[in-house]
Design goal:
Layout (H helix, E strand, L loop, with lengths): L4 H9 L27 E12 L2 E3 L8 E2 L6 E11 L4 E8 L3 E5 L17 H13 L3 H13 L7 H16 L1 H20 L11 E15 L5 E18 L10 E21 L4 E8 L2 E5 L1 E5 L2 H6 L5 H8 L5 E5 L2 E11 L2 E10 L5 E2 L2 H10 L14 E2 L4 E11 L4 E10 L6 E2 L7 E13 L2 E12 L2 E4 L11 E3 L2 E13 L1
Parallel strand pairs: 20-23
Antiparallel strand pairs: 1-4, 1-25, 2-3, 2-24, 4-5, 5-7, 6-7, 7-8, 8-9, 9-10, 9-12, 10-14, 11-13, 14-15, 15-18, 16-17, 18-19, 19-21, 21-22, 22-25, 23-24
Helix pairs in contact: 2-5, 3-4, 3-5, 4-5
C-alpha cells in the first residue's frame, strides 16, 4: 500500500491539537513533528483553553462551602520553520510555551480572605490561647492584669510594686480574685490573638506562570530513512503568586513575583521513516533547564507570627529583610511519536509522553524560612520545612488517532487521549488528576503547498483532592475537585516550499 505525496503532506500535518491541559504545568506537549516534515516547511498556530475546575471544601477544612471555577481561560501561540539545507542536513526553529498556569479563586471559600478568616483555624487558635495562658506563672498573670489597666511603666514605681505584691497575695489566697484576674488575662491574650487579623492578606489566592521555548535543531540524514537530530533550547520563565484565605494559614498575605529569567538546555532524538507508506517513528529527549529566578517576596503575616509567639521580632525582621533568588528546574521529558499508513489515504498515529515532575519543586527563600518554623508545630509535623510547590508522581500521556484524506483539499482526524496526572492529593494550585479526552480536527488545503487546520478537544478532568503546601506528602487535604471538564480549540496555518 503506497500513499502519494500530496495525501501524505495533508495527513501528517492534520494531527490533533496540543494537549493544553496535561498534568502539573505541562501545556504544549513539546512536539517535534514540524521538524520532521519533508523538504522546507513553515507553520504557525494558536491554542485556546476554556477549563471549568470547581470543587468543595473537604477533609480537614472546618466548613463545607462550594468552590467556584478557579481555572482561568488562556491561550498561547506556537510557530516552527524547518529548512532542508542539503540532501543530508536539515535545520529547524521551534517556538512554543511548554509549561504554564493561570488560576484564581473567587467567591466565599477557604482560598479567599473574608471577615471570618483567621491566621489559624479556630481550634488551633483556641489551643494556642490555652497553651499561652497555661505557661504563665502567677506573677506573670498578676503583672499582665495590672499592666492592662495602668500600663507597663506603673509596675516600676513604688506604688506599682506595692499594688503588685497586694494583688499577688489576693490571687494566691482568694478564689474570686484569682478567677477575675485569670478571666481578664485570658481575654487580653484572646484580644492579642484576634489582632493578628489585621496582618492577613486581602482578596483571593491566584497564581500565574509563563514559559517560552525556542529550540534550534540540526538534523543529519545519512540515508533517506534515518534522521539523527540534536540542538539547543533557550527558555524563559516568570510568574507571580498570591496566597489568601483560611486554607493558607500563616501564609495568608504571602506574595511572590518571579522576574523573567532565561536558561539553556538541549534536546536530541532519532527518527526512522518510510515516506511511501507514511511510516514514521521518532524518539526525542529534552533535558532539564535550570533557572535562578530573581524573586521578590512579601509576607504580611510575619507580625502575626510574632504576636502568636511563634517567632521573635528579630527573626521576623531578618526574614522580611532578605531577598534571594529561587532555584527552579523545569523537567526533563521524552516524546515518542508513531504513525503509519493503514489503508489508502488513511494514517494512524500515536504519541506517548513522559515528564519528570516527581523531581520538580519550588521553595523561595522567605517561604522556606517560615516553613521550617511552622513545621515544628505538631499540627504541621514537617520539621524540615516544606516546598511551595511539589508533585509526587511523573506524568505519562498518550494520544492515539486516525487521520484521513477526504478529498484533494479536505482531510480530517479523530483522536483519543489519556493523561496520568502528577499525583493525588495534589496542590490546590492545579487540582486535577490527569484526564481523558476526545478530539476532532479538520484541514483545508487550497493548494498542495498550503493549508489551514483547526481542531477541538473535550476533556474529562480527573477528580483530585487539593492540598495546601504544608500537606504535601500526606493524605490530608482541604478541598475536593470532581466532575470537571475543559474544552480546547486550535488553529494552525502551514506552508511547504
Amino acid at each position: 500500500m503506497r500513499i502519494n505525496k500530496i495525501a501524505l503532506a495533508v495527513m501528517t500535518t492534520c494531527m490533533p491539537i496540543t494537549a493544553l491541559y496535561a498534568a502539573a504545568m505541562d501545556r504544549s506537549g513539546q512536539s517535534i513533528a514540524p521538524f520532521l516534515q519533508p523538504n522546507n516547511y513553515f507553520e504557525a498556530g494558536i491554542s485556546i483553553l476554556d477549563p471549568t475546575v470547581e470543587g468543595k471544601e473537604a477533609d480537614v477544612s472546618a466548613t463545607r462551602r462550594d468552590i467556584e471555577d478557579m481555572g482561568n481561560d488562556y491561550y498561547f501561540p506556537s510557530a516552527a520553520i524547518k529548512l532542508q539545507l542539503t540532501d543530508n542536513i536539515s535545520f529547524g526553529l521551534l517556538y512554543d510555551q511548554p509549561f504554564g498556569a493561570d488560576v484564581a479563586y473567587s467567591g466565599n471559600n477557604i482560598f479567599v480572605t473574608d471577615s471570618s478568616t483567621t491566621i489559624l483555624d479556630q481550634k488551633l487558635l483556641t489551643g494556642l490561647i490555652d497553651q499561652k495562658f497555661a505557661s504563665l506563672t502567677a506573677e506573670q498573670k498578676v503583672g499582665l492584669a495590672i499592666q492592662g489597666v495602668k500600663g507597663a511603666d506603673y509596675l516600676k514605681t513604688p506604688a506599682g510594686q506595692a499594688e503588685f505584691a497586694q494583688t499577688l497575695q489576693a490571687y494566691n489566697n482568694n478564689a474570686t480574685a484569682k478567677a477575675q484576674i485569670d478571666t481578664g488575662v485570658k481575654a487580653g491574650i484572646t484580644q492579642q490573638v484576634d489582632a493578628t487579623k489585621a496582618y492577613l492578606g486581602k482578596g483571593q489566592t491566584s497564581a500565574k506562570v509563563d514559559t517560552e521555548n525556542l529550540s534550534m535543531i540540526f538534523g543529519y540524514q545519512p540515508i533517506k530513512n534515518i534522521n539523527i537530530y540534536a540542538g539547543g533550547v533557550y527558555q524563559t520563565i516568570d510568574g507571580s503568586l498570591h496566597l489568601r484565605g483560611q486554607a493558607t494559614s500563616v501564609y495568608n498575605g504571602y506574595d511572590a513575583t518571579f522576574k523573567k529569567d532565561s536558561g539553556v538546555g538541549w534536546l536530541a532524538g532519532f527518527a526512522y521513516q518510510i515516506p511511501e507508506i507514511a511510516l514514521k517513528a521518532s524518539v526525542t529527549y529534552r533535558s532539564e533547564i535550570d533557572h535562578k529566578v530573581t524573586t521578590h517576596e512579601n509576607v504580611s503575616s510575619l507580625p502575626a507570627l510574632v504576636g502568636l509567639g511563634q517567632i521573635s521580632q528579630a527573626t521576623a525582621d531578618s526574614i522580611a529583610g532578605t531577598q534571594k533568588k529561587t532555584d527552579i528546574t523545569t523537567p526533563q521529558s521524552v516524546n515518542i511519536d508513531l504513525q503509519s499508513g493503514i489503508m489508502k489515504d488513511t494514517v494512524a498515529f500515536a504519541n506517548i509522553r513522559w515528564v519528570n515532575w516527581k523531581n520538580f519543586a519550588i521553595q523561595p527563600y522567605q517561604f522556606g524560612a517560615i516553613s521550617k518554623i511552622v513545621g515544628q508545630l505538631p499540627s504541621v509535623a514537617q520539621p524540615n520545612g516544606f516546598n511551595l510547590l511539589k508533585y509526587s508522581d511523573d506524568q505519562w500521556n498518550a494520544t492515539v488517532g486516525v487521520g484521513r484524506k477526504l478529498t484533494d483539499q479536505w482531510a480530517g482526524n479523530v483522536s483519543v487521549g489519556w493523561d496520568s496526572g502528577a499525583g493525588n492529593p495534589i496542590t490546590a494550585l492545579g487540582p486535577t488528576e490527569g484526564y481523558w479526552n476526545v478530539g476532532l480536527g479538520v484541514q483545508f488545503s487550497p493548494t498542495p503547498q498550503t493549508f489551514i487546520s483547526g481542531g477541538v478537544k473535550y476533556f474529562w478532568l480527573g477528580d483530585a483532592q487539593g492540598q495546601i503546601a504544608s500537606q504535601s506528602g500526606k493524605k490530608t487535604y482541604v478541598a475536593d475537585f470532581t466532575d470537571n471538564t475543559a474544552i480546547t480549540y486550535g488553529l494552525k496555518i502551514g506552508y511547504r516550499f
